[in-house]
Specification:
The structure holds 2 protein chains of 2 kinds. Chain A is mainly alpha-helical. Chain A contains 25 helices and 2 strands. Chain A starts with a helix and ends with a strand. In chain B, helix 8 crosses helix 9. Classes of the chains: A mainly alpha, B mainly alpha.
Chain lengths: 684, 194
């Protein structure tokens, strides 16, 4: 606590201190309550045993208890909620201190908090909750993966699919065998006291520690805003290597019980890998299609639309886990499959709900995972062996670097846009390990090896998250790696990219070469002809992609119009007549946008709101499950345009005030009273 | 494929083409075989009708534009050299090309590729994509499924977004600027030709 108080002498440090103190107090309360409850339970037992004896003698009437204390009743949900609340308060606290959150990535801070909390719990003598594998794999991991999969940038992903698959499959295999093999070699060194760790155990350990972790990668890469290619490479790899990890883990676990490996087993392993990955994708795709099909009929029950998305995805994950298929790949496939069709069918509000709920859940999950990781570190029994741990860390780094360099050398022969040395460095450096490795280690049964392995795994996780996580941002800046460019949707880009797609497909036809444009074109045609008809409701099934894109942009702007109430920022509202009167812009293209005073803004907003309400249907009697019909919902093009024209007309009417002077660089029918003018500069 | 002997000696100006376009000899050979396949009546020249033999091109919304791009304005026939020169635009760019100011811009650089695409829009070759030309392209790509009103509003918005010098048309620079976020090299290259 003192550490957090020291740095800045500003009021925000006081707020943070307050938050931290209150969180700690809350926490201590629950711990005391927990121990008190235990004592109560014990006493309660004693009481009941006394009762039969004293029953006959005295019928003392106890006064009616006005206030009683019954903690056991709500214990479990209370503790869970308290943990989550603590985690979120911590998260809140970090972002209030600006200096710390820019230097240290959030994941590090959360682990640190977990360590503190774990230390406190241990000091009190209570038993700390450990990151139970079931809790992790069934409840904490799916939201993060679903969030990532649903919003996966498809174009970048499919364009780099080959590279990603090579890194994920071949890279992880290389890592696993290299680390496993070398560790066996290390264990053979005399004096390390590790002679009883046999080859299969080492390989098992290698397979656990080799996989890049999506949670850690997301947590760190989200903050450094790296360019899309690198982001999708590392992130895609972390998602797809799940299949390899699952197969290797189960394979070596089985073998270490059996003791020997035969060629048949190896072949079965390869077959298993194919089944696990393709099966996972298949399961996910089926659920995705089901979800899309269901969303076709939800136009009358908009309230539950988001739930379908979440539940079908979760079912996909669980179903895959039943058969030991790759749950992560199933979840990704489900999200990817469902998304285009569901988005065409659901309302705008449901879309926003889905987006925010996914972000919220994944944020909470991530926070909890890191805190629990810290707590488990303090709690768990450890078996520290210098040789083992240090060589693990070193080997992880070495194998990652070698793997990336070697694979890139091969991959670059097939890529059009080659990966530079800088790219390779970032990909190698971004190979972080995280909670999945820990949970897999936790599932091991052999207690002696387990402690040894867990200690090493935790050390590697700490090393990658703390050292690599903290230094990656300055390194990115030092190497001047290309950052992510802000992507404002542009209709031009969309038109031209589609045009180029058609062009390339045509050229491929002429060359007689069935390249990937050809197959993409075929897929699109199939999609348009058959799939969309089944999965998208109503007339939107025949809507071309360009039109949907255009509608989305228009809707976004219309929403902005209603929300901000300001006419100045919307170029498309200017009718074509006034286009001809536009004066040339100034040299630096700075536009002075007159900003409306607060009261006037309120007035305009009220007027707009009243006008928009008139277009809604007459309200039925109040029901809790009814959603107000959005004026922007389910309107055909013509109606939408009419409304927009109406809005525009009313806006310009209400905002026009007969004023003596009017000075806007762009001709709009907007004048403001002179005394209320406040100019803001728009650097667009 | 047929009785034509596939050797470099039969190809007119093979060496010069290799120099000019940067294709390897193997590629020139492959393209020559394709040229001969398309040239059904064996005249050594291609005509627009010969391209019609390629089935998928008919389904392509801008198929006819692509075909006409191969032929210089006014020309009725296409010889092998011109065929290869057009396809050279789609070769992946050479990363180790030295920036020599005197050398003309190679066809397969980003600029060359963009110029080619721009010409497909700008049929009358006046250096600008006018509103009418943009509408034609949109109509071709979107087909029967959209109303005239929708087309107009999309074209309107596109020109508004891209047009900086307010001349109601998109010049080559504005075209290039609107595509600055797209990796042209990647988007407009065919791996087969590398």
């Amino acid at each position: 606590m003192a550490v957090l108080l020291r740095p800045p002498r500003r009021s925000c440090s006081r707020i943070t201190a307050l938050l931290v103190r209150s969180a700690c107090v809350l926490f201590l309360v629950v711990v005391c309550a927990a121990s008190a409850a235990r004592r109560d339970a014990v006493e309660g037992n004693n009481d009941t045993s006394h009762h039969p004896l004293t029953n006959s003698t005295a019928h003392k009437k106890k006064p009616f208890p006005v206030l009683s204390f019954n903690y056991d009743h709500v214990r479990k949900p209370f503790e869970i909620s308290l943990w989550i609340l603590l985690a979120l308060l911590m998260k809140l606290g970090f972002h209030i201190i600006p200096t710390v959150s820019t230097v240290v990535p959030e994941s590090c801070l959360l682990i640190f908090v977990g360590l503190l909390v774990g230390g406190i719990i241990k000091a009190i003598g209570e038993e700390a909750p450990i990151l139970d594998s079931k809790l992790f794999f069934l409840y904490l991991l799916p939201p993060i993966i679903l969030d990532a999969g649903y919003f996966l940038p498809i174009r970048a992903f499919t364009e780099n699919m080959g590279t990603i698959l090579v890194f994920a499959v071949v890279g992880t295999l290389w890592n696993a065998f290299f680390i496993g093999g070398m560790m066996y070699g290390v264990c053979q060194i005399e004096g390390a006291k590790l002679a009883d760790v046999d080859l299969l155990s080492c390989l098992l350990f290698g397979s656990i520690i080799s996989a890049v972790d999506p949670v850690a990668v997301l947590a760190v890469f989200e903050e450094i805003h790296i360019n899309e290619l690198l982001h999708i490479l590392v992130f895609g790899e972390s998602l797809l290597n799940d299949a390899v990890t699952v197969v290797l883990y189960h394979l070596f676990k089985e073998f270490s019980h059996a003791g020997t490996v035969t060629v048949v087993d190896a072949v079965l392993g390869v077959v298993c890998f194919l089944v696990v990955s393709l099966g996972g994708v298949l399961v996910g795709a089926i659920y995705g299609l089901l979800g899309a099909f269901t969303s076709r009929f939800t136009s009358h029950t908009r309230v539950i639309e988001p739930l379908f998305v979440f539940l079908y995805s979760y079912m996909a994950y669980l179903s895959a886990e039943v058969f030991h298929l790759s749950g992560i790949m199933s979840l990704i496939a489900c999200g990817v499959m469902m998304r285009p069709y569901v988005e065409a069918n659901i309302s705008h509000k449901s879309y926003t709900t889905i987006k925010y709920f996914l972000k919220m859940w994944s944020s909470v999950s991530e926070t909890l995972i890191f805190i629990f990781l810290g707590v488990s570190t303090v709690a768990g029994p450890h078996a520290w062996n210098w040789t083992f741990v240090v060589s693990t860390v070193v080997l992880c780094l070495v194998s990652r670097v070698l793997g990336v360099i070697g694979l890139t050398f091969i991959i670059n022969k097939f890529r059009i846009v080659k990966l530079t040395k800088k790219d390779q460095f970032i990909v190698a450096y971004g190979g972080l390990r995280g909670a999945i490795a820990f949970s897999l280690g936790f599932l091991l049964t052999n207690s002696e090896m387990k402690q040894l392995f867990l200690t090493a795994i935790i050390t590697v996780i700490f090393f990658t998250v703390f050292v690599q996580g903290m230094t990656i941002r300055p390194l990115v800046e030092l190497l001047a790696v290309k950052r992510k460019k802000e992507n404002k949707g542009s209709i031009n880009e969309e038109i031209h990219t589609q045009f180029l797609d058609h062009l390339l497909t045509g050229i491929e036809c002429i060359c007689g070469h069935y390249g990937h444009h050809h197959w993409k074109d075929k897929l699109n045609r199939f999609n348009k002809a058959y799939v969309k008809k089944w999965l998208i409701a109503g007339e939107r099934s025949t809507e071309p992609q360009l039109i949907s894109f255009y509608n989305k942009m228009e809707m976004k702007q219309a929403m902005m119009l209603v929300e901000s109430g300001s006419a100045a920022k919307l170029p498309t509202i200017v009718s074509s007549v006034s286009m001809q009167n536009i004066q040339p812009r100034g040299p630096a293209r700075r536009r002075a946008i007159p900003s409306i005073s607060k009261s006037r803004e309120e007035e305009i907003r009220k007027i707009l709101r009243n006008n928009l309400q008139k277009t809604r249907q007459r309200l039925r009697s109040y029901s809790r499950h009814d959603l107000m019909l959005d004026p922007f919902e389910d309107l055909s093009e013509v109606r939408f345009r009419k409304q927009r024209v109406e809005m525009e007309r009313r806006m310009s009417h209400y905002l026009t005030v007969p004023a003596n002077r009017q000075e806007t660089p762009q001709v709009r029918k907007v004048c403001f009273e002179p005394e209320h003018q406040v100019y803001t500069y728009d650097d667009s | 494929m047929g009785s034509n002997s596939s050797s470099m000696n039969n190809i007119p100006n093979a060496e010069q083409l290799v120099q000019e376009t940067g294709f390897s000899a193997a590629h020139i050979l492959r393209l020559y075989e394709r040229f001969q396949f398309l040239d059904k009546d064996d005249t050594g020249q291609l005509r627009p009708e010969d391209f019609g033999a390629v089935r998928e091109l008919a389904m392509n919304p801008i198929g006819d534009r692509i075909i006409s791009a191969f032929f210089s304005p006014g020309q009725e026939t296409l010889d092998f050299a011109s065929f290869v020169r057009v396809l050279a635009h789609f070769r992946p760019a050479d990363s180790n090309r030295t920036r020599d100011g005197a050398q003309p811009e190679p066809a397969n650089s980003s600029m060359g590729k963009l110029k080619f695409a721009f010409q497909l829009y700008d049929q009358d070759r006046d250096g600008k994509i006018s509103r009418a030309e943009l509408l034609q392209v949109l109509r071709a790509m979107l087909g029967m499924q959209v109303t005239e009103e929708q087309l107009q509003s999309i074209a309107e918005r596109a020109i508004q977004e891209a047009d900086f010098d307010q001349d109601d048309a998109i010049s080559f620079d504005e075209f290039r600027k609107s595509l600055e976020k797209v990796n042209i090299d990647h988007k407009m290259s065919i791996r087969f030709l590398s």
